[in-house]
Amino acid sequence: MTKRLISANSSEVLAMNGAELKQSIKASEGRVILSENVVMHEVGDGLTTSELAAAFGADLILLNGLDVLNPIIFGLYPGEDTGATAKAHYDGESIHRLQKLVGRPIGVNLEPVDPNADMAETRLVIPEGRMASEKTLTELERLGFNFVCLTGNPGTGVTNAQIAANIKIAKRVFSGLVIAGKMHGAGVNEPVVSVEATQAFLDAGADVILVPAVGTVPGLDEDELKAIVRLAHANDALVMSTIGTSQESSGHSYIEQIAIKNKIIGVDIQHVGDAAWGVQSPFENLYAMSKAIRGERHALQRMARSINR
C-alpha cells in the first residue's frame, strides 16, 4: 500500500512510479505543496533554489525555464554551471543529482506552444528544449523526471487544445505523473480554464488538472473551480491549484487565505510559483501555506525529515 506523501521518507517517495505518486498525493487529503523554481539562478553559496524550497516544506519541486535538451541547473555543480566540465553531468545525471540533494520528486514545465494561437500580446519565443513535443517528453523519461507539468509561461502562446494534444504524447512516452492546464492566459485570447478544456485534458489521460487558485485570475470564482474539481475527481484525476500571477509575494495573510479557500474547494496539491523574486516564492510563504493547510505538526515534520531516511 502506498504511503501518503506528507508522511513519506525520501527513499519511499523517490521509488514511486507515476501511479504510486498519484495515489500518495491523493492519500494526503489536500495537504501537498508544490514549489516552482527558476533554474537559471543559484541561491547563496552554491545552493539550488530547489534545496531551499525543500528546506521550507515543499513536497514536490517543479523546475521552470529548464531546457531539457541542455538541462543546466545553477548551483547543482557549483563553479561548473556553464563550463565544459559540467557537460557530462548535465548530459544524464543532473536530475538524479537534484533528487538526491533534495529528497523530493522533481518535475519540469514543458510548454505546448501553438504557432497558430490568437495572441493577446507579443509572443515570447522559447527554445525547443522548453517546448512540449515527442522529442522533449521522451527526454524526460531518459533524464528520470518524476512528473511533467504541461502549462505556459506568460506570452508563450500555449493553448488548451495544444495542451490536450501533448497529454496524449506524454502518456505514451513518459512514465511519470502528467499535470496539465493553464495558470493564466499565457498570452492567448481564450478562457484560462473551462469545463470543456478540462474534459479534453481528462479524455487525453491527464493525471492532475492544473487550475488557477481562486483569487489569482480575474472572474474565476469558487463555484467555477469547485465544478472543475468535482469533474476531475469523478474521472479519477487530481487537481492542483496554482499561484502563478506574481501574488506569490503578497504576504502571509494572502497566502493563508488562498490556501484555506482552495482546500475548501477540494484541490489535492497547492502550487506556489516563482514570479515573486523572478526566481521562486519567498520561502516564508511556503511555511505559511504549510501551516495553514496541514498544521504546524506536519509542517515541521516535512522540514525536519532527513533526506537520508
Please tell me about this protein's structure.
Helices cover 39% and strands 14% of the residues. By secondary structure, it is an alpha/beta fold. The chain has one domain (21-304): TIM Barrel. An eight-stranded parallel beta barrel has the order 1-4-5-6-7-8-9-10, surrounded by nine helices. Strands 2-3 form a two-stranded antiparallel ribbon. Helix 3 (49-55) packs across helix 11 (283-304), helix 7 (160-173) runs parallel beside helix 8 and helix 8 (195-204) packs parallel to helix 9 (222-234). The longest helix is centred in the C-terminal third of the chain and has 22 residues, at 283-304. The mean pLDDT is 90.
Salient structural properties:
single chain, 309 residues, alpha/beta, TIM Barrel, 8-stranded parallel beta barrel, two-stranded antiparallel sheet
